[in-house]
Amino acid sequence: DACIAELVQKEKDNGLLAVTDGEFRRSFWHMDFLEALEGVKHVEVDHWSVEFKGDKPHGATLTFTSQVRFPKDHPFLDHYRYLKSIAGEIDTKLTIPSPSMLHLIACVRSHSTYTPIDRYKDHEDVLFHDIAQTYIDAIHAFYNEGCRYIQLDDTSWGEFCDENKRA
Predict the structure, then answer these.
(1) Global pTM?
(2) What is the DSSP string of 86-101?
(3) What does pLDDT average to over the chain?
(4) Which residue, 109, 93, 99, 88, is CA-closest to 133?
(5) Cα 35 from Cα 146, distance rounded (Å)
(6) 3-class SS at 83?
C-alpha cells in the first residue's frame, strides 16, 4: 500500500491525467487476474509455452474446472478500491488481461494437454460466450466501483503472424 501510494503521488506530481497502481500487487501481469476467475485453475508446468530470453520465471498455465465466471469477490475489486481511495480527484486506470488471453493460455498454448470440461467439449462457442459474459460482468463490477478507464492488455496479437499458431 505504501509503495502504491508513493507511486500514485508521483503520477499526480508529474501531471498524469489518470493514475494506476503500477500492478504492484501482481505476481505476473496476467495470471493473477485470470486465476482468480471462477472455473479457472493455475497449473504448474515445467516451462512456459513461449520462450523467454534470460532468466525465466517458473512455468504456469491455466485450465478450466467449471463454468468460467467473474466472482463478486475477485481480488482486483479490492485492489481497485484502494487505488480509488488514494487517487483523490484524478481519474484511475485499471489494466487487466484481455479475454483472448484466457482462451490463448488455457486452450491454444496448452493445446497438447488441454482437455475441455463437459460444458465446453465440442462446444467452443459456449466457452467463448462464457468468457465474454465473464468480461461483461467484470467491466460492470469495476464500473460500479467508479472505474471509467479499463485497458485490456493483449500480447497475443503477434502470434497470429505465426502460421503454426494460426493452425
Answers:
(1) 0.87
(2) HHTTSEE-EEEE-HHH
(3) 88
(4) 99
(5) 24
(6) helix
